[in-house]
Amino acid sequence: MMARLAAFFAFIIAACAPALLQAQDAATVGAIVERTFASLIKEHEVPGLAVGVTAGGRQHLFYYGVASKETGAAVNADTLFEIASITKPFTATLAGYAQAQGKLSFDDHPGQYLPALRDTAIDKASLINLATYTAGLPLHLPNAIKTFAEAESFIATLKIKTAPGEMRLYSNPSIGLLGHVTALAMNGDFTSLMETQLLPKLGVRGCFIRVPEAREQDYAQGYKGKTPRRMGLAVFGEEAYGLKCSAPALLRFVEDNIRPDRLEPALARAVAATHVGYFRVGGMVQGMGWEQYPWPVTLKRLLAGNSNDMIFKPNAATHLDPPRAPSGPTLFNKTGSTAAFSAYVAFVPAHQLGIVILANKNIPTPARITAAHAVLEALAKR
Hints:
Blueprint: H1 2-43, E1 48-55, E2 58-65, E3 81-82, H2 87-100, H3 127-131, H4 148-157, E4 167-168, H5 172-185, H6 190-202, E5 207-208, E6 222-224, E7 227-229, H7 237-241, E8 244-245, H8 247-258, H9 265-273, E9 277-281, E10 284-286, E11 291-294, H10 299-305, H11 308-312, E12 315-316, E13 318-324, E14 330-337, E15 342-348, E16 353-359, H12 365-380
Helix pairs in contact: 1-12, 2-5, 2-9
């Protein structure tokens, strides 16, 4: 009888062990996130925040505050935040998907798709230069430019002082032009290709360039100081910083990047293409959309790679010949900021670790990165 009881209890313990471990993991992750972000929310007076962590294939999601001060609606799994420049890796993935289908080559030049740019200074650059901000285009187009025709004319007459690949100059028009060319190569509209092809194939549900009417109530209100703000329309805005995402949706994109082998072959190749490094710039390696650092990485090095000097100043770029995927554990990251929203994504595929941060206020970049780094370091030591 005692032997049977012992066997019975052993069976119950074995059956419950996975659930107990999952609960323990969730509690551990929750404690780390709570102690990291409680002070950040208070210090920067953040109205609403969503944090997503993926660890060992499990998602952990945390929601704080309100999506709108006016309505008092709480941040939740459906809340859509402007992810700003984190759109860029999505655009790079779409370009990779086009190449995987044989519709373009990263070695192509813009003039092959846009006759008005043929034999101009920008046509010396390849699509890889556009994707890595090494084509020589400025951070923004002039405010007076309101149409693609005006943007095309501006780019066609732009005097570029450096050869492609010599300098990294962070640029919205650069990745914007890549997205536009990709759409032409795929015989479609960029927004439609993103929303009806790439995102569904990635399994990302809850990211939109044009927020559907049925989801308008989920679009968070951003705040600049106490003033409600949302992004406006701009040429190349959709391609460079136009996505609005929920935390679960953006975390799914991170998981696609951690395990691209689970995607259909062409899409897996597209994601893998964005993990290839092309240029060394200071202490980081620039890929298509993503920036790379050897893991573990010091906070100082991560902050330097995401500093204002990296955003607003030209930085010498050393071409990696041949371009290559990381050979060891690597952290990939990207920041995103609009006037009234801020976001950050970082992940380490080798450790199946990733984090997304979404806020309806522009939290300073160093604060976002410091918090994310603390969470990833704590989880990596478990």
